[in-house]
């Protein structure tokens, strides 16, 4: 066995080696996906694209071009939506195809609403994916109406913010998913308290970066990303996660949570503060006292907080705050922020919700 200093040096070198190897692997995987999406789609032609979806692209991108014009087709060719023969690529079929799943079977979004009585309602969003986010949001709002008093302006603002977060999550799932993952489709699961969005493919940044809601922008599918951005449907400057964080904090909603459940990147967006507690697995929930559950509800809105801030916010003694945070750490709900100090300055970051 090496002495402790040398052992730590070896562990640090190994950690960096593994991180670099993972980065190279993710870059290679991203190139494979891009190559697949830019390839000509099989057994389709321009007539298989949706006129309504193309017209919406022209309108929202403020283009002065007609669908059948050579200028528009040349633009789509430059975007890798069409190939050199003006036939759709896989990019084009996903974005604008009338029936994308007839060409790419794992395209589209599967929606499920789980009602309190145990029943479910499902809906498949298989058409042009540029139209899918609005269709999904209309479906959710129609089936899961706002439970709050509509005369309460604050609650109404909070619910509107919740739906904006859901829409952003749906767009990100369509744009950034890995379309080479066979047998897995983007899924949206809705309950009265939360919406869970499952996107096939491992994240292009670390889970810790995603959970901080401050990750650098990485795009697995640049053409999809660009088209959604031109239509005002997606952020392209790395602001998406930051704006989600700001929207949640401003409207006193719990911060969205990320997890990876192979092969899905899972995003959960909470409608109510209480949902952060009720969504914990039973084994974890049973190990939290009533006051700890209240503390967890508060901490999940903050994302990061010092021990002193936690104690002050809950109006509890420092030793009680220490016990709460220690229990959260033991259960894998938080981790100590490296270099944050000691005592009341010790800072904890939420890593699971």
The sequence of SSEs as H and E is HHHHEEHHEEHHHEEHHHEHHEE
Look at the structure and give the CATH class of the largest domain. Alpha Beta
Give the N-to-C terminal Cα separation. 38 Å
CATH third-level topology of the largest domain: Heat Shock Protein 90
Q: Which value, in Å, is the CA radius of gyration?
A: 23 Å
Read across the widest sheet, the strand sequence of neighbours is 2-1-3-4-6-5
- Number of strand elements: 9
- CATH architecture descriptor of the largest domain: 2-Layer Sandwich
**Shape call:** elongated
Instruction: Compute the average pLDDT.
Output: 87
Q: Structural class per helix/strand content?
A: alpha+beta
| Tally of alpha and pi helices | 14
Keyphrases for this structure?
single chain; 353 residues; Heat Shock Protein 90; 3 domains; 6-stranded mixed beta sheet; 3-stranded antiparallel beta sheet; 14 helices; 9 strands; elongated
Describe this structure in words.
It is a single chain. With 353 residues, the protein is an alpha+beta fold. It folds into 3 domains: 5-101, no CATH class; 109-272, Heat Shock Protein 90 (2-Layer Sandwich); 280-350, Orthogonal Bundle (Arc Repressor Mutant, subunit A), CATH 1.10.10. It has 14 helices and 9 strands. The strands form 2 sheets. A 6-stranded mixed sheet has the order 2-1-3-4-6-5. Strands 7-9-8 form a 3-stranded antiparallel sheet. It is elongated and about 70 Å long. 34% of the residues are buried.
């Amino acid at each position: 066995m090496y002495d402790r200093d040398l052992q730590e040096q070896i562990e640090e070198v190994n950690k960096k080696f593994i991180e670099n190897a993972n980065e190279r692997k993710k870059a290679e995987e991203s190139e494979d996906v891009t190559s697949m999406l830019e390839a000509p789609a099989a057994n389709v032609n321009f007539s298989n694209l949706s006129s309504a979806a193309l017209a919406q692209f022209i309108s929202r991108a403020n283009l002065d071009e007609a669908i059948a014009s050579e200028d528009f087709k040349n633009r789509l060719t430059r975007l890798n939506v069409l190939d050199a023969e003006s036939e759709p690529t896989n990019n084009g079929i996903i974005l604008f195809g009338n029936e994308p799943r007839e060409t790419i079977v794992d395209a589209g979004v599967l929606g499920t609403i789980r009602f309190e009585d145990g029943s479910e309602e499902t809906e498949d969003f298989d058409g042009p994916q540029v139209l899918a986010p609005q269709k999904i949001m209309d479906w959710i709002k129609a089936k899961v109406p706002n439970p709050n008093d509509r005369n309460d302006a604050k609650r109404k603002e909070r619910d509107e913010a919740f739906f904006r977060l859901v829409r952003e999550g749906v767009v990100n799932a369509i744009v950034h998913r890995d379309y080479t993952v066979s047998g897995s489709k983007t899924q949206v699961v809705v309950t009265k308290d939360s919406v869970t969005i499952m996107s096939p493919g491992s994240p292009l940044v670390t889970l810790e970066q995603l959970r901080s809601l401050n990750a650098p922008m990485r795009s697995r599918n640049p053409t999809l990303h660009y088209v959604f951005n031109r239509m005002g449907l997606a952020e392209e400057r790395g602001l998406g996660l930051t704006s989600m964080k700001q929207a949640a904090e401003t409207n006193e909603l719990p911060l969205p949570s990320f997890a990876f459940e192979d092969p899905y990147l899972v995003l959960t967006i909470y409608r109510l503060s209480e949902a952060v507690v009720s969504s914990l697995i039973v084994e974890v929930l049973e190990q939290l006292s009533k006051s700890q559950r209240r503390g967890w509800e508060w901490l999940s809105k903050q994302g990061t907080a010092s021990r002193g801030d936690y104690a002050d916010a809950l109006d509890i003694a420092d030793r009680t705050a220490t016990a709460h945070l220690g229990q959260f750490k033991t259960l894998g709900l938080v981790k100590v922020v490296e270099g944050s100090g000691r005592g009341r300055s010790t800072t904890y970051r939420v890593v699971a919700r």
